Amino acid sequence: MFQSARLKLTGWYLIIIMLISLSFSVVIYRVLTSEVYRFSSLQRTRIEQRLLNQGLLPPGTNISLPPPPGEIDSDLMMEVEYRLILRLVIVNGIILVISGGLGYILAGRTLKPIAEMVDEQNRFISDASHELRTPLTALKSSIEVNLRDKKMSLDEAKQVLKENVTQVNKLQTLSDSLLELTQYQSPGNHIPHTSVLIEDVIDNAVERITPLAKAKQITVDHTVPHVKIIGNKENLSDLFVILLDNAIKYSNTGTKIGIGAKKTDGHINIWVKDHGMGIASKDLPHIFDRFYRADSARGRAEEGGYGLGLSIAKKIVDAHHGTIAVISKPNAGTTFTIKLPRGS
Q1: What's the pTM?
Q2: In the CATH hierarchy, which fold is given to the domain comprising 122-185?
Q3: In CATH terms, is domain 194-341 a member of 3.30.565.10?
Q4: Residue range 60-97, pLDDT digits in tens
Q5: Using CA atoms, how far apart are residues 117 and 121, in angstroms rounded to an integer?
Q6: Buried (b) or exposed (e) across 38-69, using 16+ Cβ within 10 A?
Q7: Domain ranges for the chain
Q8: From CA 177, how far away is CA 226, in angstroms rounded?
Q9: Which of 117, 104, 131 minimizes the C-alpha distance to 12?
């Protein structure tokens, strides 16, 4: 599809360029032939003047008027016009070849962002469909199987409903994550930024994940300086909730998670460190990819998740003109470091 569009766009480039080139060629042809006639007439006038001065022409000869074009050597003018047309044809041929190649390259570069966007959209639809299929299949299978059971007791029915609600919650979590990711991917979506205290952001995030931490008896230690940054408080809070939620999910019961920060020239570095299962080196380059889950994470199905959290975190950091990096070793813990510009 894009190859056909590229060829069509190249064709339009060529039509426009050649129309301009041919128009200039016609103008150049007319100007040059006119100049040839003028030069020839002027040259004849000078010769006649010289002959008159030498007495080789009868007195009273009118030399003020240039001779008519018919007195110019027609064979010579035809040769001049032929050579001029030939050179213009050659020049336009060269322009056609060069502009065709450059137009093809330019058309490719013009269509490349569109092709990438369509590919990204197709991957998004494919990945989302795959992730939606799993809970929907489980939900449908559970309902169909239990509908055939005519001897189902009330307690069994309640258990089935409980399992179904779990699958519905997973679907809701997935749809919410997809909507949030789409929000950050939309180029026309403007998120208002104001001056916020980073310690307020961290406090809010820690408060939101406290029930999860308590359920696994995990302690969250956080000490950050009194620093202002320019950003969106809710989005930044979501960022650290994602990082803390991951840290809790993949940490062992009774461990600690630390949050610290340090001011640098014009920036603040904030890190979230856990002592959990860590990330394999082969997975590190892909952890911010949408729907990507490491093998170790896939093995812990009870933790849930669809591989969207870190992708959303990366989008939030990008929206705040910051950077995010990760250092991790299997069974030794993971440290995420976020660098954000400081406010005035």
Answers
A1: 0.58
A2: Helix Hairpins (1.10.287)
A3: yes
A4: 555 444 444 444 556 777 887 888 888 889 988 898 88
A5: 6
A6: eebbeeeeeebeeeeeeeeeeeeeeeeeeeee
A7: 2-119, 122-185, 194-341
A8: 31
A9: 104
